[in-house]
Amino acid sequence: MSDKPLSWEDVARTHGRKIYNFAYRLCGDPHDAADLVQEVLLRVRRGLADYQPGSFEGWLWRITHNAFIDEMRRRQRRPTAPLPEAVDRWDADAAPGADEQLAAMRLGDDIQAALLELPYEFREAVVMCDVIGLSYEEIAAAVAVPVGTVRSRIHRGRRLLRSALSQEAAG
Amino acid sequence: MFAAIVAAILVATPVMADISGYLEASSEAEFTGEQFVVCDTPDGSRDTVFEVAQVDGTVVAWDTAGGESVVRVAPGLSMTSVGDRVEATHVTGSRSAQSDDYVEGELVETTYLGRPVKEVGFFREGIERVRLTLDDATDAVLRSRTFGSDGGVYCDRRLVSFSTDVGDVPSLPSQEDVEAASPLETTPGILPETAAGLELIDTYAVEEGTLSYYSDGFFSVGVVVTSRPVDLGDDSDVTEIEAARGHYRRSFTAGSVAVAWSSGAENLAVITDLPPDMLEDFLEELPEPVDAGFFRRIWSRFFG
Amino acid sequence: MTHLDLLLSVYLDGETTPEESRLVAEHLSQCLRCRRRLETLNQARTAVRSLPMLEMPAHLVPATGSPREARRWHPGRWVAAAAALATIVTATALALPDPEPLDLNDVTRQVGARAALDLGANSFKFVIPGSER
Known about the structure:
Order of helices and strands of chain A: HHHHHHHH
Radius of gyration of chain B: 20 Å
Helix content of chain B: 10-25%
Helix content of chain A: over 70%
Number of strands of chain B: 22
Oligomer: heterotrimer
Shape of chain B: globular
Number of helices of chain B: 4
């Protein structure tokens, strides 16, 4: 999509749901996710006047990523809650017996919990790819890293996710 | 990446591997150059550059910024200096036996830095782990690549300039002026004689502990056993990992990785150029980490 | 035989170049271990793709009028970048006054020098001045 929308309200109606889901899957909290949508829409409103014709979605995801990063930086000054450990088994192969347990456990909450255990950069790349459906090029443009880095983050995110999911299944 | 996959599928001639033979021949060469090291580690890319000279069976390496840190190695003695501090180590132990685990691949003729060279790979358990690029004229190793379990390059060390003219080389005190450490008679009881294909060669004293040196004829491992806590350096490079037998702290620099943990009674650290998967196999055979709740305890100390 | 790692994820997302696709497909046809790895990666990918797309809360969908100014973020539960903060915390906790820790820089040089001696006085072991920890 390359046409500039008429107004921020159009943006909210057309893209709001995706932004909300991006934020929710990244932080796990519906209030924070709602606030992020507000923040993004505010920045869109301020920025629409200066928006140059080009890839609108690319511009939008760049704003969304920046808004999220800015808030995260503010938060790192005052940690409030215990952080889950991020662990990685060096080899991607699962422990024996985990396959069956994994098949049995497909609840959204467990997957969300496993996502939250990933380091931020990996989580963001996986969410952009598998929740929002952005291409590697689009993700690279949104977070301002090379495509090679996007490949690596998504892959390592999936390996950690697999680890976290099988650990949850094992109880 | 593809070259690695394709090359590994080539049938390797099952010849007795002669890595140390090539390395010994290369130490006779005389040259100066700049070595560039870049490693693709699980924690990101690490790289460094330094100057190196080989003269008269001695290798000297110093950092490009101006010789603040210098290392000199000659048969029987190694010497390092950082600023004004000089340390030396006698090596009276025998050379490592070439491990039977390695199989040598085909010699491939090609060029590097505009010079005719031969490339040869060494395979362990069917996976290429080392590939050397050897200068036809001088036998010098111009490049050394090591590989992870997926066939990707783990570390690439290569000379980016090479000259057989030996120019200005930083000097170090002559060996008579420096007190050198010698190997100890005994080895720590908690360490195995062999681990994951590497053999314990000798042990030296360090502060309140020991440093044991393992080798398989190419990869090297130093295992520290000490009662002091271990400082892994710049904290932003240290990651907590779960591997092998429990929780470890790990830090990568260009060309080596350090892993530290506590076995309860002792603090241990491993410094090595092994690729990550081989390192994990090595850690499997060392004392297991105790205090798995370390991370959680530290956290609750800060945040209740 | 060497095995695939990163390329498997790229392949699952259909983001490989034609050359990469060909090589991966060829390798997979001969390698059971990588087919298994592909499957474990696919489980992680499918798990995230199976998450429902939630509805946005109604109050965020504008009807008429101007937008609210962005409120300050909810001071509730928040999960930040685990790895970065965790290492900061660990490091601070470890900065105990005594006993003095063992500096691995010195040991690293010692190991490097020993290795170089062992394998021909040779610059291709980790005798690396200047890359301090």
